[in-house]
């Protein structure tokens, strides 16, 4: 499947991102831990993910993940509507991230990204 992107995104709390940077890895949210893998979204899936799971939340981070750095821990699996979503079976090493931006999601699900510092 060579048509899959090599970048995906993770939305997480600012506190979780600070902890991940300190530890050098992100082990996942409560939902990720319950499901047994870390949920990511490709760029074209991001707005729907934000609206469905993060509406009305602030103090979030949008983390860009280099999927080529994840090796066999990355598996694309069907999810919403049968679309393939990237899932990480194991921790997300912060060394596999390309950057992060502050994020808020309005009550109606619109994403508001902060300017990069």
UniProtKB/TrEMBL annotation:
It comes from the Bacteria. InterPro entries: DUF952. Gene3D superfamilies: Protein of unknown function DUF952 (3.20.170.20). This is DUF952 domain-containing protein.
